[in-house]
Design brief:
Blueprint lengths: L1 H17 L5 E9 L8 E3 H4 L2 E6 L4 E10 L10 E7 L9 E5 L12 E11 L5 E8 L5 E5 L2 E2 L4 E2 L10 E3 L16 E2 L1 E9 L5 H19 L11
Antiparallel strand pairs: 1-14, 2-9, 3-8, 3-12, 4-7, 4-9, 4-14, 5-6, 5-8, 9-13, 10-11
Helix pairs in contact: 1-3
Length: 232
C-alpha cells in the first residue's frame, strides 16, 4: 500500500514537473535612425564591406534591417549580401550570411525603404559586440547614414545617435566624421531578437506540484517506525 502510494505520489510530482511551461520569450527591437532626413547616403558597392556594429541586447537575433535608397537608379538591381560577425569587425568567420535585393519601390534618391533580413533565431551573447556587414554587386544600393548634414549652414543636425556601436568601413572616401576615433556615424538600422526568461509555473501547476509533494510527505509519515538501538 505504501509502496503503491509512493509511486502515485511520485507520479503526481513527475506530472507536475512535466506541465511546467517552457522557457518564455519576449521579442525586443532596437531601431536607430541616425539620419532621419536622409541627407547622407553611401553607395554600398563603393564602400563595401560597410557595416554597423551594435551591442546585443537579446539572447537571440531574428532579423536585421537597414534603410536603403539609391544614387544610381539606372544600375542593375542585383543582389547584396548581409553577413553577421562577432566583434566590431568587417571580416572573420560569418555567423550568418544571406543575399537579397532592393525592393522595386526604390527608384530614385528621393525614395527609400527598410529591408529586413530574417535570421534563424541566432543565439548571441547579451552585451557582446556584433557587426552586420553589407557587400554589393552593383552600384544601385545606397545606405542611409547619419547624422544628417545641412549643406546650406554647414552644420550637422544631430550627433552620435547610438553609443552602442558605429558605422564601419575601410573606404577612404567616406565622410570625414565617419573615420577614426572621431567617428560619430551610424547607419539607419534595426535589430530584432528574443529575451529568454525563466518559466514561472501557472497557479494550476503549482497546485498540482504541492499536491504531489504533500502526498509524498503523508506517505513518509505513515511508514512504520524503525527502532534505534542505543546500546549493543
Amino acid at each position: 500500500m505504501s509502496i503503491a502510494f509512493h509511486k502515485a505520489a511520485l507520479a503526481a510530482v513527475s506530472l507536475a514537473a512535466l506541465t511546467v511551461p517552457a522557457v518564455a520569450t519576449a521579442a525586443e527591437t532596437l531601431q536607430v535612425v541616425s539620419g532621419p532626413a536622409g541627407t547622407r547616403k553611401v553607395t554600398v558597392s563603393a564602400a563595401d564591406p560597410i557595416g554597423q556594429s551594435f551591442s546585443a541586447f537579446t539572447d537571440t537575433i531574428s532579423s536585421i534591417g537597414f534603410q536603403f535608397s539609391t544614387l544610381n537608379p539606372t544600375a542593375a538591381n542585383t543582389s547584396l549580401t548581409l553577413s553577421l560577425f562577432a566583434g566590431e569587425t568587417l571580416s572573420g568567420t560569418s555567423l550568418f550570411t544571406q543575399s537579397f535585393t532592393l525592393p522595386s519601390s526604390i527608384t530614385s534618391r528621393d525614395t527609400s525603404a527598410w529591408v529586413d533580413i530574417a535570421l534563424p533565431n541566432l543565439a548571441v551573447t547579451m552585451g557582446g559586440f556584433y557587426t552586420a556587414v553589407l557587400t554589393a554587386t552593383s552600384d544601385r544600393a545606397a545606405l542611409l547614414v547619419g547624422p544628417d548634414y545641412n549643406v546650406s549652414t554647414g552644420q550637422f543636425s544631430g550627433g552620435d545617435a547610438y553609443a552602442g556601436g558605429k558605422l564601419l568601413t575601410n573606404w577612404t572616401g567616406i565622410y570625414a566624421n565617419c573615420k577614426g576615433a572621431a567617428n560619430n556615424c551610424d547607419a539607419n538600422f534595426r535589430v530584432t531578437g528574443d529575451l529568454n526568461a525563466a518559466a514561472v509555473p501557472e497557479p494550476a501547476t503549482w497546485a498540482l506540484m504541492l499536491l504531489g509533494f504533500g502526498a509524498v510527505g503523508a506517505a513518509l509519515r505513515r511508514r512504520p517506525a524503525v527502532a534505534v538501538k542505543a546500546l549493543a
